[in-house]
Amino acid sequence: MNSFNDFGLAEPIIRALVNEQYVTPTPIQKDAIPVVLAGRDIVGIAQTGTGKTAAFALPILNRLAANPRRADKKSCRVLVLSPTRELSGQILDSFRTYGRHVGISSALVIGGVPMGRQVRDLMHGLDVLVATPGRLLDLLRSNAVRLNQVDVLVLDEADRMLDMGFIHDIRAIVAKLPKERQTLLFSATMPREIADLAAQMLRDPVRVAVTPVASTVERVSQRVIMTDKPAKSALLIEVLRGEVKGQSLVFTRTKHGADKVVRSLHHAGISAEAIHGNKSQNQRERVLGAFRAGKLRTLVATDIAARGIDVDGISHVINYDLPNIPESYVHRIGRTARAGAEGVAISFCDNEERAFLRDIEKLIQIKLDLTDRRSNPHASERPPAKHHRPQQNAGRNGRNNGGQHRNGQQQRRNEHGHQGKPRRNEQGNQGQQRRNAQNHVAVAANPDNIATVGFMRQPEPRRHITGDANRNSR
């Protein structure tokens, strides 16, 4: 398939693609579109910037155009779930862009905004509903939406929804859907939990895997600066003033860290704004609008909030904090080098983050260029902070944080408290561990039955140069 005309898409859709100057399908589009057009379930493994939104939106629009009918009140024909407000808005924009000549009805259901307008949008029925899981569940509980007429379900960025603790929400939503439906699951990575979810929810799915997550974008120049943690703020100011000519996206690991970076940049006279989960939807839309329009040159973001940021003018991605999940590094630097441009990714690494750096280099199979700016280059490596994926059962509001804090206090009391009965405590702990081991049973579906169209190929180890997406990589 060397042209979108080869897929047999409806004329109104082809006309919209011509308007957008789409010519050649990306690899994920070449593999996925025929499968979706054939009505098959699909598991698509593709990282950001590969054009996966069009890979599912175009065949879905073709289905709607071939069978035009209005859904019943409060119902929808197509349901798309995504982890963040920004990504949901981007997906809806893509459906409206590609379907501008088809005449579809569509709406967005996300948190952070009043529910009134969303309830009114659903009142008369929709062709396409794009939603975040939490707000959709709220509307389900208030009987503002019904899901018994969904023909197609799309789960986009499934791995990120897992990380954000939405897995139980997704199961609750899927339980409300008709069993006879087409299900499309797209994910940048395939952890065991997502493979099990696919095995349970999809019927004989075809697996399409392109651009493995270990492949960083080929036009991104990557390097690491070793630095002391207190010196990161001054180093960021130095890089922004001395090297960055276009727009830059700065990543921090926490929401508090993002706000702190913005304050330090403002103090240095550099205009910057932060985007993260504690910002209201109006604040996030205002900041993103200014960034997309080029009015804001520096945007500071957390990993989750950055999903859905698709701006061609980003010349630099700066990892102020290294991610503790190595796959997130690939997602981060994929925000630059868009639409055939070149980009730069600079990562600051302090002594506590050395383990994170090793994990990243192991994943991407590249030894990154390193400059040492530490005051004591021979300082011993400190143990890193907690190095694991976020708690899957933390829920939307991270309610486990309090429990973790209490556990930490209890642990300190145990360490410094009574020392007269260590043997009894030790024996009790060992007995408890044996009982836990006996009671624990792991049940997992077998994802190995998924058919394969494209295969992931591990890249050969090489020095840094990295990604590209053609213009149709939305």
Kindly list the characteristics that best describe this protein.
single chain, 474 residues, alpha/beta, Rossmann fold, 2 domains, 7-stranded parallel beta sheet, 15 strands, disordered C terminus
For the termini, the CA-CA separation is: 19 Å
Report mean pLDDT, rounded to a whole number. Answer: 81
Q: Which radius of gyration do the C-alpha atoms yield?
A: 24 Å
Structural class: alpha/beta
Main beta sheet, described?
A: 8 strands, parallel
Examine the coordinates and then state which fold CATH places here, giving the name of the CATH topology of the largest domain.
Rossmann fold
CATH architecture title of the largest domain:
3-Layer(aba) Sandwich
What's the shape? globular
- Uncertain regions spanning at least 5 consecutive residues: 387-474
Q: Let me know the CATH homologous superfamily of the largest domain.
A: P-loop containing nucleotide triphosphate hydrolases
Q: What's the CATH first level of the largest domain?
A: Alpha Beta
Helix content: 25-40%
Strand order of the largest sheet: 3-4-2-5-6-1-7-15
